[in-house]
Amino acid sequence: MQGLREKDEAALRALMERYGDELMRTAYLLVKDKQAAEEAVMDTFIQAYRKIDQLQDPDRLKSWLLRIAVNRCRMKMRAWSWSRIFPLPHVEQMIIEEEPGPEALLMDAWRNEKLSEALLKLDYKYRETIVLFYYNGFSVAEIAEQTSSNENTVKARLARGRAKLKDMLEEQEDGNETGAGANVHESKA
Hints:
Elements: H1 2-5, H2 9-31, H3 34-50, H4 61-78, H5 102-121, H6 124-135, H7 140-147, H8 151-188
Helix pairs in contact: 2-3, 2-4, 2-6, 3-4, 5-8, 6-8, 7-8
């Protein structure tokens, strides 16, 4: 922290190594575009480096960085996005994990892909709340502070977001079952 206040670039690199992946995952889930997420994260680190003196409580560094990143993502979402033209990569391709067995990998990949697809279809306000709560471990109070909302609004967005995700995932499962059944009948004809 002191190194950042003294504008030490090594301290900035250490900060980027420590929080970069988490900020990138959060930004990607919010803006749905890898390049826009990378830009938002880089903007976050630049702003944090420039304005580190504004951070009152060093214990809240992570929360402060996430707030900056979320604000940068909001700004990007307001602007026209290239994601309307180019296909989106899946979130799970960005997350590098230790390799479990092949069956577990296949099932995890399938679940992650379906969840990622559903999550990216949510309205931004639900997606933001769910990402902060489940992916970043923020409490309802922290999310309310981060989004300048009251706690009941955050709770409602979590509940509605979860319900929408559940509906989308159930529709995908129902579609797969009906699609498989339809193919069997078509092949007999």
